[in-house]
Amino acid sequence: MAKKRVFRRRKHRRRGPFMNPRIQQNKTRLLKTITAFLLLPLLTFGIVSCTISINSKKEAETADTQPIFESQGAMIQSGVSSWTENSVRKCMQWVDPSRASRRVIQEYLPVPAGNCWPLAGQSVIISLFHPVSITALTLGHLRKHQSPDGTKKSAPRVFSAYGMLTIGAEGTFLGTFLYDSQGREFQTFNLPYTNNSIFRYVKLRIEWNSGDQDFPCLYNFRVHGKLFT
Fold it and tell me: Can the peptide bond before residue 110 be classed as cis, meaning omega within 30 degrees of 0?
């Protein structure tokens, strides 16, 4: 009598939901996205800095550790800042000077053509929304292809910066910097030295511009540093 063959079902080990390589990869991407989202406020205020690696492509982003945007509470001190006193002002009588000056600290990326502040006295004082130890400055201007004549003649060429605790103070010299008209739209300049001094105001003085224009046009100016608490 022939024996009956007994077939036993093989028991398969049940794999977890993240054992699949594709699912594991998606999980890793999700965790990195969540981490980057949670770190964004810290990067914005310069509390931390990091390099995020995604798909083996490392991208190091330089965060605005202390941008002086109007939306954050920064203001142009119109009473002590320069505004055009020549024919430029006459041609722009329809422009509110205070509104024009505010463009310097508004968030634009890229910079819109013509959205600038023409300076005659070459200086502007900006109140920061919070006392800060300044570490770097950023100056922004048009790209060449945005300019009607394809140049940056109205761009500031050399500028100096001073930090102040009060508007009436003489100010601490932070340095003199060269804006490359052949370079990038936004250029950041690290201070030669920092002594952890705390400032409430920043004075920007344009020494001379890139071309033969009678006045420099200021498009965007930013301050980077560490918050004082």
Answer: yes
Among 32-41, 73-82, 123-132, 214-223, the range with the most confident prediction by mean pLDDT is 123-132
**The tokens of 141 are what?**
């201007």
Top pLDDT among 15 and 187 is at 187
pLDDT one-digit tens code per residue, 5-18: 655 555 555 554 44
Structural domains for the chain: 21-59 (no CATH), 70-227 (2.60.120.260)
Q: What is the pLDDT of residues 75-131, one digit of tens each?
A: 545 444 444 434 344 434 334 444 444 455 445 555 556 566 666 657 788 888 788
β-pair partners for 214 = none
Tell me the mean pLDDT in the region 158-164. 91
| The total number of residues written for the chain in this structure | 229
Q: Is the pLDDT of residue 160 over 90?
A: yes
Cα–Cα separations (whole angstroms), residue 70 to 83, 106, 119, 127, 148: 19, 6, 19, 10, 28
